[in-house]
Amino acid sequence: MYSFEIVRPTSLADAVAALGQDEAQALAGGQTLIPSLKQRLAQPSVLVSLTAIAEMQGVSAEGGVLTLGGGTTHGTVAREAAAHYPALAALASNIGDPAVRNRGTVGGSLANNDPAACYPAAALASGATIVTNSREIAMEDYFQGMFTTALEEGEIITAVRFPIPEKAAYIKFEQPASRFALVGVFVAKFADGVRVAVTGASEEGVFRWTEAEEALSGNFSATALDGLTVSADGLMSDIHGSSAYRAHLIGVLTKRAVAAAA
Amino acid sequence: MPKDHGIGASQKRREDVRFLTGTGQYTDDINVYGQTYCHFLRSDVAHGRITSIDTAAAEAMPGVVRIFTGKDFEGVGGLPCGWLITDRFGEPMKEPGHPVLAQGKVRHVGDPICAVVADSLEEARNAAEAIVVEIEELPAVVDMKAALAEGAPLVHDDMGTNLCYDWGFVEDNRAAVDEAIRNAHHVTTLELVNNRLVANPMEPRVAVAEYNRANDESTLYTTSQNPHVIRLLMGAFVLGIPEHKLRVVAPDVGGGFGTKIFHYAEEAFVTFAARKINRPVKWTSTRSEAFMSDAHGRDHVTKIELALDKDNNFVAVRTDTLANMGAYLSTFSSSIPTWLHGTLMAGNYRTPHIYVNVRAVFTNTVPVDAYRGAGRPEATFQLERVIDKAARELGVDPIALRRQNFITEFPYATPVAVEYDTGDYVATMDKLEEMIDRAGFAARRKESEAKGKLRGLGINCYIEACGIAPSNLVGQLGARAGLYDAATVRVNATGSISVMVGAHSHGQGHETSFPQVVAEMLGIDESMIDIVHGDSSKIPFGMGTYGSRSLAVCGSAMVRATEKIINKAKKIAGHLLEAADTDIELKDGRFTVAGTDKSVAWGDVTLAAYVPHNYPLEEIEPGLEETAFYDPSNFTYPSGAYACEVELDPETGRVTVERFAAADDFGNVVNPMIVEGQVHGGIAQGIGQALLESCVYDSDGQLLSASYMDYAMPRATDVPFYAVDHSCATPCTHNPLGVKGCGEAGAIGSPPAVVNAVIDALASGGHKVDHIDMPVSPHRVWSAMQG
Predict the structure, then answer these.
(1) Nearest residue of B to residue A172 by CA position?
(2) Which CATH class is domain B28-138+216-255+260-274?
(3) If you average pLDDT over every residue of chain B, what do you get?
(4) DSSP state string for B532-582
(5) Which ipTM score applies to this complex?
(6) Nearest residue on chain A to B713, judged by CA atoms?
């Protein structure tokens, strides 16, 4: 790690101001950033910790929408969202290990947009809205390929609003080493249709499997997916699984998610 | 009633108090006044010619004390290989130089090029980034077959080949084996890979060296399993420091698994540099460095053939193995695929004709050397997989086929040059069948099938050879070291005892189990006895801990030394009691004149030894301290039978281990709890190898599995509760304790059980799959199921 300054503002305004400095970098839970710093892959002059900003914390549900403060940890989501959006709470409870869950945050995960992370699947399947210090970003506009989002330099995710589906489930097939998703599928059934989001598989990051959505919107059962396959083109291939294997897993896991949600 | 003290008691490990309360003293906990920090600049290419190194800018950076390159080591020795292999044609193996810092060429990713010594680690790292190294990249050889092809790039230009040796064992048997296979009723052939592993001890390697100019003494603190071996290799072969000017200390060591046996460049470097700059130098490996600089394990590609007669008796085994040496010969690398592998190819079976061929190959990868089991897991895996395949081909029960071919009479001389002293393979298999509830398997399989899963049962046997010896024999085989061990029993005036042992404990629990032996012999309380290990200035010249040798070899030395203590103490007691020493009996810590009530206590005798007022000074010397060196007359041969039950998800290919049973014969057992813990850990590592762990290079020699993000270590949730048993004990006949060694058994015995179980599960689902290479990952299982 190179040496750096660290500040821990207690208000959003102070955080935004601190991020205006040269080579400033926001630090949420640090589950990706800290290892990168240790590897000397990044050299920020100042880290702006977001963990002391009260207005970025917390879990609340109102009017069919679950709102998570951007700085809410996975552990808190796992505990406090269970009554409102059990599938999302279950997803949070299976990220990493207790140490990761007690540091990592929903805002950090969505800002990083790791192609194998869990939260992007939940956000995309739920049709969530990303709330930042300066605007609201619709899901359709937010993810822009792996590790790329609509966030501007210095923009902070202050909250994420998840519409609560009637039924939902997330099934993750873990990559054996990292325990990130080799493939993860989030299925969410709303009154007006079904959304299916797939993480871990595509070279473009999280994506919606629209054919499955159409089939499930008419008939929300695993059998509705019979005969549907995903093309391996554009899917990731690495030492843990070929693109063909990932394509196969998407079909298997989507069925399992539907069965778990039904 | 289980014993509550002495041999056979499950004493809790006394060392765990400090380990569990954070008060262990590991090498990284050692900081010396005025110390500097070292950072190695390592090659990021697998193969290349160094055309220039410019350190000028880096030297001028803050905190830099000195920057070293290969030039500083011209005229300094290279890292030696400890075992000379003679090939099939009587020629010595190719033995290339292994410089401390790269000279001329880099040969694997991670090969150290420069070392920056600075006042702080951060300054050392900063300066390393300012060094400009130009490397003309050369094509890399990674695949062993490609490395042996004509015109392949040469890892070592001056060797003229990438073949280190072509070893045949026993070469004189070759023709007879070929003929037996030609004439056999049935031959089962299997090609398989024994996957390359990274040992990953919890504590990475660390080395701290200091130099005392006043007396010209160097001290090296290092994460080693054998400090005296390091002192000898580094002092005599690399740096030219005589033993009396070199102290090597291996304090608490957080796991070794073989990878901390070897003499590494980094520890030689810090010792060298501390003398040059006259300041202490410290190096602590990062986890990333460990992946690319700790010696790796396994990495064999093998074709094995098992020939059977019409009655299913084994008649011959023939193997053809490529063994990866990596870019350089690590300390014991050459011996692993040969003497520690070929000698085990008889397994637990009467096979009259066996021939083992091993070609060791240089590649542009990290050196490969011993890893828990070292050669013996590779032998066991091939043999127990091919037997299972033969059973499937012949339509016979895999347990019955094994039982039919078991060695049942001991001693048994195998056709691969070793003689098993004892064993009872029928008894361990009987025990195993009882432990696994084979009769209930069909019902468990049905339950799995009702959930849409497949269930498989895999079993296998293993034999291992521990405590490599005797020294004169291994010397003839090419070993450049003795393989005895040593212990000094120092009885203090008040009767407490320090036992200085050549073995090193880095997880094995010697500090608990060794005193149990001495306490049993003397009849005194274990709390009066402490073990001292790991410091060459405190202990006799012993050979350290590896190959499950500590109790069988060093423990035997300790017994011999304690016997000398008893003999002398009886003379002192005889004098005090005015009786002949031959009439003195030692029981429960008291010396008694046989047949009388005249006695003196242990403490009376020990005090007399050091305050010899009433003492036979004309007959014996004062004091009570004895040393013994013990050189075993043979290996020990632990054996056992293992069973694994897996559940397999046919939709995803994911395999989970549901049940695991291990019936081991370790001979006599000193501390059953520690033995069971060793088996548990070994099985976890074996399951890790079978299902999860894989060290992967791409074709350019880049390490793809270079961190825990891609290298899958087994976790608690990956392993089941184990059923373990060591009641079928046939004590070793040639060491005083009758012990055999248990450290590696779990890692040797478990991989074939897991893979056999997977193949069985697939077969039950109608999938005719002969073999899946380890790790049997979900992707590989699914791919195999696709045909």
Answers:
(1) B652
(2) alpha beta
(3) 97
(4) E-SBTTTS-S---S-TT-IIIIIHHHHHHHHHHHHHHHHHHHHHHHTS-GG
(5) 0.96
(6) A177
* pLDDT number for residue A166: 97
Which residues of chain B does A2 touch, with a Cβ-Cβ cutoff of 8 Å? 122, 126
Q: Which amino acid is at B395?
A: G
Q: Which chain A residue lies closest to B649 (C-alpha atoms)?
A: A252
Chain A interface mutation, best of B44, B197, B702, B779, highest count of A Cβ atoms under 10 Å? B779
Mutation target to probe the A interface, by most A beta carbons within 10 A, among B652, B699, B715 is B652
Stretch (H or E) spanning B268:
helix B265-277
A94 has a chain B CB within 8 A of its CB? no
Please name the residues between 87 and 146 in chain B that touch chain A, using a CB distance below 8 Å. Answer: 122, 125-126, 129
pLDDT score for B92 = 98
pLDDT tens sequence across A19-47: 999 999 999 999 999 999 999 999 999 99
pLDDT tens-digit series, residues B140-156: 999 999 999 999 999 99
Residue B200, chain A, CB below 8 Å: the answer is no
Question: Minimal CA–CA distance to B363: which of B83, B100, B145?
Answer: B145
Residue B157 has pLDDT above 80, yes or no: yes
A22 and A4 Cβ atoms separated by less than 8 Å: no
Verify whether the Cβ–Cβ distance A173 to B779 is below 8 Å. Answer: no
Q: Which residue of B has its CA nearest to A238?
A: B704
Q: In this complex, do B779 and A240 lie within 8 Å of one another by their Cβ atoms? A: yes
- Two tokens at B281? 């130098």
Q: Is A178 on the interface with B (CB under 8 A)?
A: yes
Question: How many contacts (CB atoms, under 8 Å) link A and B?
Answer: 47
Smallest CA-to-CA distance from B746 within B658, B670, B661 is with: B661
A245 and B705 within 8 Å at the Cβ level: the answer is no
pTM above 0.95, yes or no: yes
Q: Do A176 and B712 touch (CB under 8 A)?
A: yes
pLDDT in tens, B651-690: 999 999 999 999 999 999 999 999 999 999 999 999 999 9
State whether the Cα torsion B177-B178-B184-B187 is positive or negative. positive
Digit-coded pLDDT (tens) for B580-625: 999 999 999 999 999 999 999 999 999 999 999 999 999 999 999 9
DSSP helix/strand/coil, B526: helix
Q: How close is the nearest chain B Cα to the Cα of A242, in Å?
A: 8
Q: Kindly report, residue by residue over A149-159, the tens digit of the pLDDT.
A: 999 999 999 99
- Bridge partners of residue B463, in order along the sequence: B639
Common-topology check for domains B28-138+216-255+260-274 and B300-468+634-785: no
DSSP B586-611: EETTEEEETTSS-EEEHHHHHHHHHS
* Residues of B in Cβ contact (< 8 Å) with A229: none
CATH number belonging to the domain at B484-630, selected among 3.40.50.720, 3.20.20.140, 3.30.365.10, 3.40.50.700: 3.30.365.10
Quote the DSSP letter at residue B153.
P
Model pLDDT, residue B487: 98
Residues written for chain A: 262
H/E segment holding residue B94: none
Work out the pLDDT band at B2, boundaries 50, 70, 90. Answer: confident
The CATH fold assigned to B300-468+634-785 is Aldehyde Oxidoreductase; domain 4 (3.30.365)
Q: Model confidence at B468, in pLDDT bands (50, 70, 90)?
A: confident
Delineate the domains of chain A, giving CATH numbers in brackets: 5-49 (3.30.43.10), 54-163 (3.30.465.10), 167-261 (3.30.390.50)
**Domain ranges in chain B?**
28-138+216-255+260-274, 300-468+634-785, 484-630
Which of A229, A249, A253, A256 is the best mutation test for B, with the most CBs of B within 10 A?
Answer: A249
Q: Does the pLDDT at position B469 exceed 90?
A: no
A241 touches chain B (CB under 8 A): yes
Distance from CA of B779 to the nearest CA of A (A): 6
